[in-house]
């Protein structure tokens, strides 16, 4: 674990200094030699750097690091709650707009099947005989009453 902590620190430092020191002769060879020195079980370079430099620094800042971790957890929870609320809001808006668009499409389909079109279709029984012919007068109760009084006369 010590090696990986030291190597992570080395990677950060190398990224920053690589642009300014890359012109130095044998720079890349020195980088390779340093990584081998860190990794080697004979030299234990990573252990030496960790115990002499990093461990005392991390131990002195332990309380601050713990507080920062707790704050990061709280902020991440609040951030996830906010993202969840925004996601639900977006999903609800999308669902409502889809329902409105769908309602418009259904309304157009139903308009195409108006009562005028249905009055043209007669119902037939199994033998093909006409059972009932729809007319707008038969649907109107006042028209039916006048029809009944006309037929009695």
From TrEMBL:
The lineage of its organism: Eukaryota, Metazoa, Chordata, Craniata, Vertebrata. InterPro entries: TB2_DP1_HVA22. The keyword Membrane applies. Its main location: endoplasmic reticulum. This is Receptor expression-enhancing protein. It is found in: Endoplasmic reticulum membrane; Membrane. Microtubule-binding protein required to ensure proper cell division and nuclear envelope reassembly by sequestering the endoplasmic reticulum away from chromosomes during mitosis. Probably acts by clearing the endoplasmic reticulum membrane from metaphase chromosomes. Keywords: Cell cycle, Cell division, Endoplasmic reticulum, Membrane, Microtubule, Mitosis, Receptor, Transmembrane, Transmembrane helix. Residues 132-153 have a biased composition (Polar residues). Transmembrane segments: none annotated. Pfam families: TB2_DP1_HVA22. It is a multi-pass membrane protein. The gene is REEP3. Belongs to the DP1 family. Residues 129-153 are annotated as: Disordered. It comes from Ilyodon furcidens (goldbreast splitfin).
